[in-house]
Automatic annotation (TrEMBL):
Upper classification of the organism: Bacteria, Bacillati, Actinomycetota, Actinomycetes, Micromonosporales
The species this protein was found in: Rugosimonospora africana
Domain Luciferase-like: 6-303
MF annotations from Gene Ontology: oxidoreductase activity, acting on paired donors, with incorporation or reduction of molecular oxygen
Keywords associated with the record: Oxidoreductase
Highest taxon listed in the record's lineage: Bacteria
TM spans (from-to): none
Protein name: LLM class F420-dependent oxidoreductase
InterPro entries linked to this entry: F420-G6PD/mer (IPR050564), Luciferase-like_dom (IPR011251), Luciferase-like_sf (IPR036661)
Amino acid sequence: MTSRRGVALTPMETRREVIVAAAVLAEELGYESFAVPEGWGLDSTPIVTEIALRTTRIQLTSAILSVWGRTPATLAMTAVALQQVCAGRYVLGLGASTRALAEGFHDTPFARPAGKLREVVAQVRALLTGQPAQLRHVPGARPLRLGQLPAPEVPIWIAALGPRTTRVAAELGDGWIPALVARDRLASWASELVRLRETMDPGRKALTVAAGPIAVVDEDPGAARDVAAACTAWYLSAMGGVYARSVAEQGYAAEVSAIVAANPRPSPRRATVPPAAEPVLDQLAVYGTGAQVSDQLKRWDQAADIVTILLPPGIPWPSIEATLLAAAPLR
């Protein structure tokens, strides 16, 4: 049974002071890792810097930086700088993001996302190991190296859900950080990726799997359930289809359809999970009183290397504090 726990937040959480305070508390409570979100609100890299300057032990992950929003060279420079600021505690999280963000925010065509992910991860890793830039668009230019000492030790964790992107995670990543994977599916899925990795490169370091449920603690279990349900339903009905397809393919197509039908105009705080879809909520979230959440998390401990709870956006600080206390690793 794992006693390794991590914390993640959603891209909709844009309260900088809350993110930093949650990271400081997570370190005090013994959490191993803290994932700083980035979507269409805050740039995560200065937030990682602020947290690094206020902590000494906890691992800090950019979860995730989109491969559409920065060049491989920028990502490599960012990783080296943050590894220095974090004194070796930094993890570069990369992902293919969604069509909505790539096209609607970064003004970039969402073409061949798995290929783009593979290309960027390979280019960033090459730069971090001291190799010159791999030029694709201006091949006649003189390729430059990173103007810093190589930093091959920076781990690259990959956010992936589809078959092509998870293959990239298994082949090129140091870790896999999926979101909204059913509890009863996670362990077997992780094992599949580990076997694939061993087949491709038997001598490669083990793949770290960092994943877990949406988590909410409240003295009123019904209120906690509503918050967890709103976050779950928002992801399944409003995030461009990627999470809905993934959860449906995990065996919950009818439940996903019911959630989408119940939320024609979803909101991250007002979306609902109808009774017919309750099995999905049970698989993707833990909620209730502190004792209930602590007990529910035991069912996740065999599923991942680092059981990473996902805090819904906008919840008040007392709920965040109570959730972190309930989900903290055993000391």
